[in-house]
């Protein structure tokens, strides 16, 4: 399976062309391990993805990763990194990052994401313009 369809690739590239707190477009995971990635942007080079990266050590972080490197990963039993075909973001990437910081891993739990989004809104309201 290709990790990115042409439609997903174009959405990621479009997000990469402008600065904003984009919503994640794709979720990748290791089917036999703890690694998970939520990507919201793709650079014009067609390889550098930006998003929330969780390698399973308890410290998810925002950063960049190489699509070609992720695609080249070969796991036991002939498996590779997979795209979650059912993933649909419900919040911007910042909310996923804030929730992951509190949980120690990427979470899709609606309560954790809502709490993180509310905390971010509160913080933005307190910040000077």
Structural overview:
- This protein is α+β, with helices and mostly antiparallel strands and 129 residues long.
- It has four helices and five strands.
- Strand 1 and strand 2 form a beta hairpin.
- Helix 3 packs across helix 4.
- It is globular and about 50 Å long.
- The model has no long low-confidence stretch (mean pLDDT 95).
Compact overview of the structure:
The protein is built from four helices and five strands. By secondary structure, the chain is an alpha+beta fold.
* Gap between N and C termini: 45 Å
Order of helices and strands: HEEEEHEHH
How many β-strand runs?
5
* Overall shape: globular
Report the portion of residues in β strands.
Answer: 15-25%
**Classification by helices and strands:** alpha+beta
- Rounded to the nearest angstrom, the radius of gyration is 15 Å
Given the structure, what is the number of helices? 4
Describe the biggest sheet?
Answer: 5 strands, antiparallel
Numbering strands along the chain, what is their spatial order in the largest sheet?
4-3-2-1-5
Spans with pLDDT under 50 lasting ≥5 residues?
Answer: none
Q: Report the average pLDDT across residues.
A: 95
């Amino acid at each position: 399976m290709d990790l990115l369809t042409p439609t997903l690739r174009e959405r990621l590239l479009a997000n990469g062309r402008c600065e904003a707190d984009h919503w994640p477009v794709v979720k990748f995971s290791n089917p036999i391990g703890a690694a998970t990635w939520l990507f919201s942007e793709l650079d014009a080079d067609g390889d550098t993805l930006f998003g929330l990266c969780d390698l399973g050590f308890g410290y998810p972080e925002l950063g960049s990763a190489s699509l070609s490197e992720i695609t080249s990963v070969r796991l036991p039993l002939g498996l590779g990194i997979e795209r979650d075909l059912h993933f649909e973001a419900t919040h911007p990437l910042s909310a996923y990052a804030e929730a992951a910081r509190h949980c120690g891993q990427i979470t899709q739990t609606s309560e954790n994401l809502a709490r993180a989004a509310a905390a971010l809104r509160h913080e933005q309201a307190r910040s000077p313009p």
